[in-house]
Design goal:
single chain, 420 residues, alpha/beta, Rossmann fold, 2 domains, 7-stranded parallel β-sheet, 6-stranded parallel β-sheet
Length: 420
């Protein structure tokens, strides 16, 4: 049996999830290869520094350098064919016993799962964040999706079998977890139940906890030090974090709607410029420069773009977090920080934060100013909210004992040996 395991990621968040797992696997004598798909997604992937992990970027020999969601159907065809053959070459060279993925919804990831099967390697999916409504059910196809479906249907009917990408573009946005995987490592029993309702076999689902949460308790203990640093830097103004998301780029929401969402929060921060500072933390898959330009134009005195702090540490050091429906919301609850969900979009929260009374959620952008004052400046009902959070975490979040990455590593090793 080969002692090589490939960790395939398309975002820095997935890399952050799998990096601590790699440390445990390396201690058990496995050779780890971090495979970045960034040349196909057009997004840089930043792996945490590790002496145990050899990182590889899968080459994209095509002239197309666009992000997948900006591609025309013909460009997607080109990228799909390129990935199909480049992934085969890589698997033939490395001969892994197992491929680990942070997502299985994208057509590239599903191609990689198929290629791994063909090469005799097993596959494990490790949950990289809270499942939102978009990942729990297949949305109605957009006109572009329908066009891709039609093109690839024709392509598959006339092309030889070696043109492997064809079947994978027929359903561009499938449900999470439905791929042909050997095992799924999920964060909590709530997610496990969602997958069971979707028809995924019970013996394939394993509740391990979230590896990325292993460091949260240490961050909480060090929060006071970071809080003092922010207080000094911003002269005592209350620091509130806005965790952004590439939801418009990923096609989850309309670009104009996302722009209005950002403007409403920035303009509200201007009202409280003497009392608070809005710290914009771009998603790892986004270009911070675009937010720098926006903040300078709309709220130069009441906002700042922060890229030299990771989101978890910044949240712990702040007075709380604003986001739409990011996994950062759950991290804010674990870190015991006030949370405001501004979600005017048609995207369901992955967890019932508002219904369970652990955060305030608003859909009307006209309420943003009042909500910021209530949650962060006045902290109304904060003591009651904190009491409800323990019950919420017990109900919806997996183990928070700092051992999740070790459990995932143990599962991966069992799957690789065929003994899970």
């Amino acid at each position: 049996m080969s002692r090589t395991i490939i960790l395939a990621v398309s975002t820095s968040n997935q890399a952050a999830t799998l990096a601590p797992v790699a440390t445990h696997l390396a201690a058990r004598g496995w050779c780890l290869v971090g495979l970045s798909l960034e040349m196909y997604f057009g997004l840089p992937v930043r792996w945490p520094s590790s002496e145990y992990l050899h990182t590889v970027i899968l080459e994209n020999p095509t002239p197309c350098d666009k992000k997948l969601w900006d591609c025309t159907p013909s460009q997607l065809e080109m990228l799909g064919c390129s990935f199909w053959f480049e992934s085969r070459k890589l698997l033939q060279a490395l001969k892994p016993s197992l491929v680990v993925l942070g997502n299985d919804r994208g057509f590239l990831e599903r191609m990689l799962i198929k290629r791994a099967r063909m090469a005799g390697a097993r596959t494990v999916l490790v949950q990289d964040g809270v499942l939102t409504g978009n990942s729990q059910q297949t949305p109605h196809p957009s006109p572009l999706s329908r066009t891709k479906h039609m093109i690839w249907k024709i392509f598959a009917s006339v092309g030889p079998e070696r043109w492997g990408p064809a079947p994978f573009l027929k359903s561009p946005t499938p449900c999470y977890g439905i791929g042909d995987l050997d095992a799924l490592a999920v964060s909590d029993h709530h997610t496990a139940n969602l997958l069971l309702q979707r028809g995924i076999r019970k013996e394939r689902i394993f509740v391990t906890g979230q590896p990325r949460f292993d460091r949260l308790w240490r961050i909480r203990e060090e929060a006071a030090l970071h809080q003092r640093a922010l207080a000094e830097k911003y002269q005592g103004r209350v620091p509130v974090v806005l965790a952004t998301q590439p939801m418009a780029e990923w096609g989850e929401v309309d670009h104009d709607d996302y722009r209005r969402y950002l403007y409403s929060i920035l303009e509200a921060s201007c009202v409280y410029r003497d009392r608070m500072i809005l710290l914009i933390r771009p998603h790892p898959s986004e270009d911070p420069a675009s937010y720098t330009r926006l903040a300078s134009a709309v709220a130069p005195d009441s906002s700042a773009v922060v890229t030299d702090w990771d989101t978890q540490t910044l949240t712990a050091a702040s007075a709380g977090l604003i986001t739409a429906y990011s996994t950062c919301a759950l991290e804010a609850i674990i870190l015991d920080r006030p949370l405001l969900l501004v979600n005017p979009f048609r995207v369901e929260q992955g967890l019932p934060y508002h219904a369970e009374g652990v955060a305030l959620e608003i859909q009307d952008l006209a309420l943003v100013q009042d909500a910021i004052r209530t949650v962060f400046l006045e902290r109304l009902h904060w003591d009651q909210i904190r009491l409800r959070r323990k019950t919420f975490l017990d109900k919806f979040v997996g183990p928070l004992d700092g051992c999740s990455s070790e459990r995932v590593a143990r599962l991966i090793e069992q799957v690789a040996s065929g003994s899970q």
